[in-house]
Amino acid sequence: MPSHLVSIIMPAYNAEKSIAESIESVLDQTYKNFELIVVNDCSSDNTKKIVKNFIQLDSRIKFIDKTVNEGVASARNTGLDHALGDFIAFLDSDDKWKENKLEKQLDIFNKYAGIDVIYSSYYRFNSSGISKVVGAPNFLNKKQLLKGNPIGNLTAIYNFKKFPAIRQKKIGHEDYLFWLELFSSSNNVKGFGIQEPLAYYRVAENGASLSGNKLRSALWTWNIYRHHLKLNVISSMFYFAFYVFKAVFKRV
After folding, report:
1. CATH 2.30.30.240, applies to 6-211
2. Helix 214-223 vs helix 233-249: crossing angle, to nearest 10
3. Bridge-partner residues for 117, per DSSP?
4. Where are the domains of the chain?
C-alpha cells in the first residue's frame, strides 16, 4: 500500500489556549506520513512559542510566521503554497482529530481511485463536553453541494495533485466556496463521507461564532451563488431555498 504524504494546514491566531491540544491530535495519528504546516497569522500571545516547542520534538512540523494579519483564508492559502503532500487536510488551531482519522481516509483513497474528497461526521464540543454529532452524507457531488455545505472543513481531505491551484477567497463562507470551486473544477468530482465522527469542532463558549448569525450567513450564501458562481436568479433561488430549509430546521 503506497504511503502518500499528507499536508495538514493549520492557521493560528492567538491560539495559546488550544493549539497544543490540536497539534497533539495530529502527532497522535496512527497514519504517520504527514507534514503539519502551522501558519501563524500575527498572533500577539504565546502561540509562536508553543509551536516552536513542538518543532523541537517533531521535524514533521513546519512553521510559517506571517508578517501581516490577513485572516484565515489567506493563512490557509499560505499553507497550500508551501505544501508538498499528495493530499491536503485542514485543521484549525482550536479543533482536534481522532487518532485514526487520517488512516481511515487514506485507506479509502488507496482502495477507490475515483474518490477526490473524503470527509466525515464530527463532534461539536466545548468545555461543557460534546453537544452533538454532525452527520455526513455518504456521497456528494456538485449538485448536492449547491444545496448546502455538508463538509466539515476540519474533517476533509482532498487530492492535492488533482486540484493544485484552487485557493480560498476572503469572503464569508470561504470554506463553502472553496469546496464548490473544487467540485466545479472538473467533471464527476466525487466526495465520500465516513459516518463515524473523526473530529472535534470547538464551539464558542458563549454560543457565538463568525458564521453564527443566520441572516448574515444567508447573505453570504446568496452572494456565493450570484456573484462567485455566477448562477442566474432562478437557479440561485432554487438552491437558496434548500439552504434556507436546512438553516431553519438545523439544530444548534
Report:
1. no
2. 150
3. 158, 191
4. 6-211, 212-252
